[in-house]
Amino acid sequence: MDHQYCEVKLSVQPCRALVDEKFKVLVQKAPPGAQLTVRSHHHSENKHEWEAFGHYICDSTGALNLSEDLSLGGTYEGVEPMGLLWSLRPVPGSKPGLRLRKMNVETPMEVTVSVYQGHLSEDFSEQRALAAVVVERWYMAPGVRRIPVTEHGLTATLFLPPGPGRFPAVLDLWGGGGNLMEYRASLLASHGFAALVLDYLTNELTKTTGKMMENDYFEVAFKFLEQHPQIVGSRIAMWGLSFGTAMTLKMAVYSNVIKLRCAVCYSGSHIQPVDGSVKDIKEYMGKKRENIRVTENQEVIFRDLTLPVPKDPAFKVDMGRLQCPLQVVVGLDDQSWPAYESAMDMKVMMEEAGNSHLLTLLTYPHTGHLIEPPYSPYVRTSILRPFPGGVSFKVLWGGETAAHSRAQEDAWRKTLLFLREHLYDMRNSAVTSKSNL
Predict the structure, then answer these.
(1) Is the pLDDT of residue 66 over 70?
(2) Are the C-beta atoms of 62 and 31 separated by less than 8 Å?
(3) In whole angstroms, what is the distance from residue 340 CA to residue 363 CA?
(4) Average of per-residue pLDDT across 55-74
(5) Which residues form the active site (predicted)?
(6) Which of 37-46, 108-117, 176-185 has the lowest mean pLDDT?
(7) Active site residue: 40, 71, 87, 242, which one?
(8) Which of 63, 134, 188, 372 has the most crowded Cβ, counting Cβ within 10 A?
(9) C-alpha to C-alpha distance for 286 and 211, rounded to whole angstroms
């Protein structure tokens, strides 16, 4: 190592934070005008290596501030203080089709931020870092409680914010991959909302009986929340992603049991047999397999499965009957669901019915299907087995790295505001903010 670089200092503040909080990366005591590479590295729970890096030039004092200074190259460019997270990608030579998702939310995502001499793009393991800091990124704030739920035949996890409550709540529905994806629900609890994430595709009853869930399964989950002593039963929302959007809209409009204060739908559609169950929706889409497209790179595009938008009212939720506020989030380059076409049809239906004042529509250019919490690594393609037990595909999700990542940050912020507006009694209850780590 050049002796001029021996005193280089690196700081990341805060070094322990929630995943949706920004950090500040500073380099000091480098030679003036030095070329440096700042790199992040993450060893995932499933034993894969991820990295991101930017190329920088120090100022005349030998300092570098990622919140102000340009990355001239690397996995991101420009002034991008969080680029070290959202541009994380598998290291060269990794297994193709990887997607980074936190499975154990009771432990942090650990990221090592390092600084290197020169502008490097490969072979980091063969170089000696000038300085390094380990950063902890948490989905669960201190005091958040994780409670597995198995009663009433449910396969679910409840997250409760710190304190005795009572809390407004969110029923969290994920998409066609199934399983309990807990990271969004735990992050919601870190912001003051009780959240029940529900497995409705790979749940224990399905494993035991082989039968997919009927609609009353979702009603049972809602009643569990409604009757919980630490939850305000009159202040419950549903949040659906992808296939979860279909079930959220069905329940919001047609259920006589589920009475929502509001609903949030990301990257999904109202197109489905309205009298059907999970199984019926799956079979409806299966009948349109000829609409599946495959790129020259063997990436599967599912977005045309339910297009064109049907005119028959038996195959789309009657949005004119919706009685609660609804936020719809759409990536305009979604290659997995016809989210934009569906949103436009929903908007027209609600305008004709006179309830369009209930609709908040957020659309994001160059944004794909997987709209995750802020600073989550962007994934354009990954391996997916849609509906457990089926065939695995290399799925094209769509989007462009920087634009998609900005959409994730903006949509999350606006969704939290939407939930606070409709779930909190702003006159009598203080809004719970995220806890300091």
Answers:
(1) yes
(2) yes
(3) 8
(4) 97
(5) 242, 334, 369
(6) 176-185
(7) 242
(8) 188
(9) 17
User: Is 425 known to be catalytic?
Assistant: no
* Region for 27 from its dihedrals, namely left if φ exceeds 0, alpha if ψ lies in -120 to 50, beta otherwise: beta
As given in the structure block, the two tokens for residue 176 are 């066609």
How far apart are the C-alpha atoms of 245 and 370, rounded to whole Å? 13
108 and 181 share one domain: no
The CATH number of whichever domain residue 176 belongs to comes to: 3.40.50.1820
Going along 150-242, which residue ranges are E strands?
156-160, 167-173, 194-198, 231-241
Whether residue 41 contacts residue 50, with contact meaning beta carbons closer than 8 Å, is answered with yes
Average pLDDT, the chain: 93
Residue 33 burial by CB count (10 A; 0-12/13-18/19+): exposed, middle or buried? exposed
Residue type, 163: G
Question: Is 334 tagged catalytic?
Answer: yes
55 as an active site residue: the answer is no
Task: Specify whether 181 is located in the same domain as 318.
Answer: yes
Say yes or no: 115 and 192 in one domain. Answer: no
In 1-67, which ranges are continuous DSSP H helix?
A: none
428 — pLDDT class (breaks 50, 70, 90): very low
199, 334, 376, 422: which is the annotated catalytic residue? Answer: 334
Beta bridge partners of 28: 9
Cα–Cα distance list, 119 to 7, 10, 55, 85 (Å) = 19, 17, 6, 19
Task: Indicate the number of domains in the chain.
Answer: 2
Question: Which candidate in 369, 376, 404, 422 is catalytic?
Answer: 369
Q: Are 171 and 156 in contact (CB under 8 A)?
A: no
Backbone Cα Rg of the chain: 23
Is 385 inside any structural domain? yes
**DSSP-derived secondary structure for 88-153:** -EEPTTPPTT-----S-TTSPEEEEEEEEES---S-GGGS--SEEEEEEEESS-TT-EEEEE-GGG
Top pLDDT among 425 and 85 is at: 85
Domain carrying residue 206 = 145-423
- pLDDT band of residue 176 (cuts 50, 70, 90) is confident
Best CA proximity match to 378, nearest among 89, 70, 59, 175: 89
| Size of the chain in residues | 437
Dihedral of CA 407/409/412/415: which sign? negative
Give the number of other CB atoms < 10 A from CB of residue 208: 9
- How many angstroms separate the CA atoms of 309 and 288, rounded? 13
Query: Over 90: is that where the pLDDT of 385 sits?
Result: no
Q: Same domain for 341 and 299?
A: yes
Residues 162 and 214 in one domain: yes
Q: How far is CA 130 from the centre of its chain?
A: 34
